[in-house]
Design a protein that fits this description.
By secondary structure, the chain is mainly alpha-helical. The protein has 21 helices and four strands.
Length: about 550
Amino acid sequence: MEASRVHLQIRTTKLPEPPLIWSDRRWYSHSSDPFINLWSDLDPSDTQMPPPPPILRLFPNLRPPDKTLVFHQTSVLVLTFLAYASFHASRKPPSIVKSVLGPNLPTNSTSSGWPPFDGPLGTRRLGELDLAFLVSYSAGMYFSGHLGDRIDLRLFLFSGMIGSGVMTLAFGLGYWLDVHLWGYFVCVQVVCGLFQSIGWPCVVAVVGNWFGKEKRGLIMGVWNSNTSVGNIIGSVVASSVLEYGWGWSFVLPGVLIVMIGVLVFSCLVVSPEDVGFGIPSKDVAMGVLNGEVDVSEKLESEEASLLRPENVTDVHSSDAIGFLDAWRLPGVAPFAFCLFFSKLVAYTFLYWLPFYIRHTAVDGVHLSHKAAGIFSTIFDIGGVLGGIAAGFISDKIEARGVTSVAFLLLSMPALILYRMYGSISMLANISLMFISGMLVNGPYSLITTAVATDLGTQSGIKGNSRALATVTAIIDGTGSVGAALGPLLAGYVSTRGWNSVFFMLIASLFFATLFLIRVARTEIKEKLGESKWFSYSIVGQ
């Protein structure tokens, strides 16, 4: 009698009893049950994983079943939040010290600026310095996303954080070493941009590994406040020590990102599989002498369903996607070009808002360098609320494009009002700056997180988690080109007056909206056809 084949699908998620042992650069399940050990015995190449973080070796009880999936998800959110907040905190000092390095107000004779940024072309030099950083950042983004799909994300992220901290410290050392060489500052910014580009694809890929799609907009909206929180921390820290010398404004954020980098290296778990959750299922062929039997054991758990947006098993699901193939995925190009213009606006505010506040009288009074830096955090506080609101709304209506277009359309009149009436009084300035930050950062936050993660795990690539870093890098890398262009143009255009700068920003928001019109129209037709939007009010009652 011919031996028939029995297909036995095994998932270890429901079998937390056997401890996972790290040995010879592999995880092994220590158990007397041969079926539990099948996944590690059949194909050793499938079980090779990156070495666990040191904290799992020091404290084995942090692995399942002692710690639940929710515990590890929360840990990942906190660690990646701190990681990218520290990245943004270390980017903030150049914008804070602009008013000290660059040309001074005509009424200010107490300070002479810092060569080579203090002459008539000082604002252009400062804009070109931003360009040096952001061009290398955007170029590095494409390569870092491609590498992030192929190497250990924890070690890659750690290297980016340490390198960013060292380069931030190197910029600050120019104060004590009395460096006035244009080339020194440009080289530091170029290298720093390359290290900074490692951060975003890594943290988004890690979070995407741990969370499904159902509440991704809200989760990512809250989580992506790390950018605004980092900006706030960087602004407050850099401004608070500015009076002791502008070098200190770089030293403290540089030390901060190095310290958090060590924490990430010690504690971050990149994917659920690294601690024994959701090991990919295998079809095990077994010879049977008696008759033909077809047995399929599905050991699914509620926890395992949270790990992926869809339960699809594919032996090639861990293969990294090609760069051009990622560009061809539906929705990647329009959202990438929309982010180009959205990030142009956001980063112009990031790098020039403290300078603008310092050089624009509010109620007839010019603020000090320190006050202008701290005052600019109101824009980022509004950005925190905008990111959360955009994520929540997009989850409710299940339409990322429509949500982004709505925020972009509202942000244009908000910037007009801020320019026209922001100087009338302190209250008007605070209110309009807060609203502008909320509306400008809303779509920027949504596209760089939930949208990028959705596109990187869509059904067309069968939930391929290794495509996530590449798609994220394409979207944010394209946006970073706009981020490089915005501050540079602001440095040149500001010599003609700030009205010209705001016109540039409003025009950019208009073009960002145009790129998503087709996406939003498709979403509207789809939702109206499914009658989903009309059912929300009925379900809620």
